[in-house]
Amino acid sequence: MVNHWETAAMDANLFWFNDEQWAKIIPHLPSNQPGPKRKDDRRILSGIMHVLKIGCRWQDCPKEYGPHKTIYNRSPVGARKAFGKRYSHAWPVRAIRPNELRSTAAI
Question: Taking the model in full, what pTM does it have?
Fold first, then answer.
């Protein structure tokens, strides 16, 4: 399988975390979780950022990021809905300012 973030001719309209950004994210990802093997985290999280940056519907997220349902379920919005209001305090969702979505911003 070709890693989309390593290809030289990436679609300019797609968001991909670069290696430097991804290195800062990796320590915060869950590990040793029971259940089925997780999908490619970099792909799924890049898809979440794409939806938040572009403002499209989850179901319109490009297929390069993986199944739109997986992307939605892994997002803070999907996680809140999945666990209901009882657990929603664990994922505080706040308004995202446009300057926080720059692909070159340090994470």
Answer: 0.65
